[in-house]
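Re: folding output
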Amino acid sequence: RGHFKNVRGTLEFDPEAPQKSSVEAFLDAPRIWTGEAQRDDHLRSPDFLDAERHPLITFKGNDVQLGGPSEFTVTGDLTIRGVTHKAPLRVTYLGQWETPYWEDGVDKGPMARAGFTAQTILNRHDFGVSWQASLVRGGFVVGNDVLVTIDVEALWKG
């Protein structure tokens, strides 16, 4: 399992009308982190993310289909390694809450936040990620399908 650091983006969201939502997300491919430096370097290499040539992973979506009171699917353009495909994200809205907000050591008062979790399954070959190695006892190091889980805590600017 790996994580991306320095994820950023913009989300237009109204809990009363989620079908009007849109999202833009940007991930820095070189900032992948698995906790093992050698594996991280390999994931950044041309075998996987090719982070030197394609440093940015993007998702831009505004096709929202409702699935329940707090569940919906957002379909958008996902770009990895310079290759773009439509990708559906199954999203659950977790609600809103307030927390203290500090910036540069200054208490800015409470800040509203909204939480979401999302998942999708990607075929890595669709994005040109085809490296593979066999295991000694059979099977392969990497499967074709990759489960992507996204947890978001967004600052609410109402």
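--- second protein (sequence, then structure) ---
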Amino acid sequence: MLFWCWVSVLNAQVTLTGTVKDEANKNLSGATITISKDSVSSILAYAISKSDGSFKMQIDNAPEKLFIKASYMGLTTFKKTLERKSQELEIQLRPSSEALKEVVVKSEIIQRRGDTLSFSVEAFKDKNDRVIADVLRKMPGITIKPGGQIYYQGKPIQKYYIEGLDLLEGRYSLANENLAADDVSKVEILENHQPIKVLDSLEFSERASLNIKLKNDVTLSGTAKLGLGATPLLWEANVTPMLFHKKRQFIASYQSNNTGKNVANQVRDFSLNLTGTSYDIAKTDWVSLLNPATPPFSQDRWLDNNVHLASANGIQRLKNDLDLKLNLSYLNDYQQQQGSTQTTIYTPQDTVSISEVIDNRLFIKNFQGKATLEQNTKKNYLKNQLEFNTYRNTERGMLQRTDAAIVQNLGTPFSGFKNNLDIYKTFGKQLVRFSSNTGFSESDQFLRVRPGQFEDFLNSGNPYAESLQNIKSSNLYTDNSAGMTKVLGKFTTTLKLGVALQKESLTSDLVLDDSDTPLGNAFQNDIDFKTSEVYLKQNWRFKNTSETWNIRLGAPVAFKAFNLEG
């Protein structure tokens, strides 16, 4: 069995190598080679020939037959059906001998200019593709995860531009799932992309970014649909208008459904940390209900929801390449969870059966937003971003056991705010940096359980009506630094000096019935944790003349002080 599985994997993976030449046996650089199942199927893999005419492609889960096509402007297109096996090919393209009555200019399927790879949307799109995400899923090298995050060559992209503007600041699923594919001309992959222009020649980036190119200079696009069903009553509504201009872009959206579609994924933030310091204001739950097991199949088949999502996003380019952005979203969702388990325990003396039925009601309210001022030029970089994230979540749960019923109620409100400021400015051949990141978050959570549990442990064996656990937490953080980057021939050195302070606190208590007095110290927490850090970071980078490789070396030094009280 193990041997058979190993052979199957080898057969499904095919590597194709070869060279592309013209009629004079001269190597062709920039020829496009694509692999598909047949002449009409979507592309499985692609390659662009190098300066010596060579190419290499690897096809995972290859079909029985492979259709290869090689093209070069002004020459005939090479087409051939191959067997499913690794092989080396020598492709020769001849001058086109057809007499053309008219000249028709068509875009190449795939084009490369430096580190920019362009995919023609028309070449990948079919009549069933409604939004640009449908087309992206067919493009080789691009993967969209179930939550909406886009990967290129196995790594998450760092930026999602629309006509060169970063409107959504990491929450790009809203555009990806609603921008009409018919309005897009090309998808550009910016390989080794450095989003901060002033760092372009100073700090190498291995990440890729994605840029959506539209067909028209001014584009009005989006989605509008309404669906209804009966027994039970089901609905899905989506109104997402979009306006794109060279200096102005706007996306608004209202979406609602009770069909199990999790539209909250469309406002998830997939931003990558570009500057190395950031305070996270994500919500932490200290208490939770007993939840049923997650089914082992797609979420939209089991999620019982009633969701409403509203979002507004705008960007305006001002003078001197200064961008002003505002991103707001509000989510209101009512979810129901039901599940049951039956456990049977066999012993020599008896058989014990335990049944549990869980019935939960979740009320989710989330309001979040960002206000951003950004200037990104080759000489200067300025970005100040104010962000907030608030939750007002409550949950109710009923746990029905063989011998008792337990009612649970909890609240997990949360508020978080942060401000990130980054300033980079060039002076001759050196770059001066300043960064300031400050954030604060707090949460006041509770869990109420009726009837009271563990009376022997909590109440000297006396039954009681209910227990209430209260938890309060807060976190204050600030990190401020200044530094300099200087180029010395083939060496680039960066020096950074900073101070970071953090104060975290956590208090909790447990109250029985309607008492105003919590239980003893054994059931209470009152913790304060303080951290202070002074750090000095020095980095060196060496790159060869052709920039085909580089070496990085870091030497951080830090002094940290901790204080824990409780």
